[in-house]
């Protein structure tokens, strides 16, 4: 079973900069959630992983998995929709994920999560203007083994995970199959139908093959499929959300299918390594339901189909010396079809229409991206390192869009059929200067540019000018990574200033609200992460993030000037603190426990700073025992039963007013793990 508390966290190896290095040697503000943190912290999905990292936020404006949004240091997708790219680059097993709906499924076969804060324009490029979140799979092992875990809890929570590893040819060929399923009853009561919604019904499977014909050559083939089937969306009135009640005459039922094939290869030579990642992925989403007023005012639906193909080839030096380098090429293409409709019911007369009047938007979108990237690190004296890097990219986006009105003329969007495309070119440079002050202590300064291309208004557009422009961010950062007191203390610090130019936002237009660009925003802040092992078996950890994120210019908001307001989803203060303990009670059995406190200060869900979530804290607890090949534990999430909003929007009085989604209530359960 897992050895819960190990050595210094800075000694753990990760692939933050596309090569395997000690966390303490990488000059970047980053966090790592490995098997210990995820297993003991009870982290089940991406949303819970984000909550465990300071400076990150996960939100949704409509409650469904299509509209999820990750922000890092206040930068993400301020406008959430099919035509707007995420503001944080997302990777699963080194494969770039182009749409937010393709990320955030339950974890099956996962090994660790790496979080990189701040723009990562050089090595990660596309959509990495806010940072990057990377999920790494546990690879097949050259042994015969198996493991399984089951959990049960309140709200009829049931979860099962299992994997089996087979050494087909010892030391040469191995296979691993992982499966998982999760079901949970609803946590929000719908007064209109009497149902409990916001339930879960998910399952997934993954098959991995690893071939190692000799020590210098490695091939992997991964196949995966995940499926969500649930009434997951539970938007309610802004205040009703905190009471876990809503009024949806037709609750929003949705489904999501996410599958892919990945082929990876690694060749090692005496001077450099060559890595190749080829992937094909498909994401399907569909959902429809009514408003949340209990008055049957309107109904809407969204249906997406997304296919993507990507290829990346990287070369990196592997010889010791004063020079290290890496570089490569990234190719990406996708085909995206989306259809959205809105149907007016009891409010139809307000628009001069009859009950059941419907308008539909349909968009077919294609894009391709090609990029060259690289960086060189020079140790010009034994304790000083200079890194220079950059990325040159070219991107094309194409759209064929149509908005079809009902028989009596459009009122929800401009009736039109438009076909157009745009090209984007970008250069994102990077410079890092690092200095080893002492063994185990490193200071650095860093400057890097992030970039996100423009896009199109692709649903209910209020303008014939569908296009909006790219956005950029320059990040200036200084940090310290340190391990001291006989490796019993890790302390990592970072401070930064990010200049965000032309963020993609909602803006005014003569015919209504559209996605466009504001002037600029500035984010000032810092992070501190501490891990202290005061005695054998004990670990005390705390992560703290602070930021002041504001619009410097945003005069073209649809309602009024938002200049000077705080950025959406940007708590000034986020923190995660935990105390962990383990102790052998017999030579083969040890007891363990972890208590955790997560805190987020107040945040706004909108640029006008009207939809506010006050600060809140979440308490989590895990206690249990580990033996030879088994583990049993009891866990509690949100033990104080704190109700808090995870997203909000203002649809206007006619369409239901201010609505919000709510986080999970108190959950208590138990789990059993076995290994063979």
TrEMBL record:
Record's keyword terms, sorted: Cell outer membrane, Ion transport, Iron, Iron transport, Membrane, TonB box, Transmembrane, Transmembrane beta strand, Transport
GO cellular component, one term: cell outer membrane
Domain TonB-dependent receptor-like beta-barrel: 198-639
Pfam families in the cross-refs: Plug (PF07715), TonB_dep_Rec_b-barrel (PF00593)
Residues covered by the TonB-dependent receptor plug domain: 25-132
Recorded superkingdom: Bacteria
SUPFAM superfamilies, alphabetized: Porins (SSF56935)
Recorded topology in the membrane: Multi-pass membrane protein
Biological process terms in GO annotation: iron ion transport
Location relative to the cell: Cell outer membrane
Family per record: Belongs to the TonB-dependent receptor family.
Protein name: TonB-dependent receptor
Source organism: Paramagnetospirillum marisnigri
């Amino acid at each position: 079973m897992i050895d819960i508390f190990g050595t210094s966290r800075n000694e753990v190896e990760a692939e933050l900069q596309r090569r395997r290095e000690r966390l303490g040697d990488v000059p970047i503000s980053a966090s790592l959630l490995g098997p210990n943190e995820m297993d003991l912290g009870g982290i089940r999905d991406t949303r819970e992983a984000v909550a465990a990292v300071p400076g990150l936020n996960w939100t949704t404006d409509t409650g469904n998995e299509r509209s999820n949004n990750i922000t890092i240091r206040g930068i993400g997708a301020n406008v959430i929709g099919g035509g707007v790219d995420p503001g944080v680059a997302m990777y699963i097993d080194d494969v770039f994920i182009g749409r937010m709906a393709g990320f955030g499924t339950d974890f099956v076969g996962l090994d660790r999560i790496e979080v990189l804060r701040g723009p990562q324009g050089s090595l990660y490029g596309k959509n990495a203007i806010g940072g990057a979140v990377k999920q790494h799979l546990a690879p097949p092992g050259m042994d015969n083994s198996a493991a399984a875990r089951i959990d049960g809890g309140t709200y009829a929570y049931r979860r099962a995970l299992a994997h089996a590893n087979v050494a087909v040819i010892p030391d040469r060929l191995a296979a691993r199959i992982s499966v998982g399923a999760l079901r949970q009853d609803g946590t929000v009561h719908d007064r209109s139908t009497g149902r409990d919604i916001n339930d879960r019904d998910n399952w997934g499977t993954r098959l991995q093959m690893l071939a190692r014909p000799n020590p210098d050559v490695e091939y992997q083939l991964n196949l995966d499929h995940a499926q969500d089937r649930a009434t997951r969306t539970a938007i309610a009135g802004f205040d009703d959300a905190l009471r876990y009640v809503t009024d949806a005459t037709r609750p929003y039922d949705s489904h999501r299918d996410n599958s892919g094939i990945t082929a990876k290869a690694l060749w090692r030579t005496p001077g450099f390594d060559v890595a190749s990642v080829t992937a094909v992925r498909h994401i399907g989403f569909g959902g429809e339901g009514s408003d949340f007023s209990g008055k049957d005012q309107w109904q809407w639906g969204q249906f997406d189909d997304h296919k993507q193909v990507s290829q990346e080839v990287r070369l990196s030096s592997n010889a010791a010396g004063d020079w290290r380098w890496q570089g490569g090429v990234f190719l990406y293409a996708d085909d995206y079809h989306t259809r959205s409709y809105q149907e007016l019911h009891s409010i139809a007369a307000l628009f001069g229409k009859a009950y059941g009047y419907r308008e539909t938007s349909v968009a077919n979108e294609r894009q391709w991206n090609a990029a060259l990237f690289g960086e060189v690190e020079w140790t010009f004296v034994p304790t000083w390192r200079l890194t220079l890097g950059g990325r040159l990219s070219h991107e094309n986006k194409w759209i064929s869009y149509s908005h079809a009105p009902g028989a009596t003329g459009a009122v929800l969007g401009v009736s039109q059929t438009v076909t157009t495309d745009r090209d984007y070119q970008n250069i994102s440079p990077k410079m890092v200067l690092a200095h080893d002050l002492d063994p185990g202590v490193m200071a650095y300064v860093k400057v890097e540019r992030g970039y996100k291309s423009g896009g199109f208004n692709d649903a209910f557009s209020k303008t014939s000018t569908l296009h909006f422009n790219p956005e950029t961010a320059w990040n200036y950062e200084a940090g310290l990574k340190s391990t001291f007191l006989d490796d019993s203390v890790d302390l990592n610090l970072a401070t930064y200033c990010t200049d965000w130019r032309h963020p993609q936002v909602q803006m005014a237009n003569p015919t209504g609200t559209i996605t466009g660009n504001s002037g600029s925003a500035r984010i000032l802040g810092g992070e501190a992460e501490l891990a202290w092992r005061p005695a054998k078996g004990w670990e005390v950890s705390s992560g703290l993030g602070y930021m002041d994120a504001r619009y410097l210019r945003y005069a073209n908001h649809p309602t009024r000037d938002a200049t000077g307001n705080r950025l959406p989803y940007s708590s000034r203060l986020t923190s995660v603190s935990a105390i962990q303990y383990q102790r052998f009670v017999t030579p083969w059995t040890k007891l363990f426990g972890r208590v955790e406190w997560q805190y987020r200060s107040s945040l706004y869900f909108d640029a006008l700073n009207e939809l506010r979530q006050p600060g809140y804290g979440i308490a989590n607890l895990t206690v249990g025992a580990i033996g030879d090949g088994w583990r049993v534990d009891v866990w509690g999430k949100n033990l104080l039963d704190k109700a808090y909003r995870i997203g909000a929007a203002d649809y206007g009085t006619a369409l239901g007013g201010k609505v919000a989604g709510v986080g999970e209530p108190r959950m208590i359960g138990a789990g059993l793990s076995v290994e063979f």
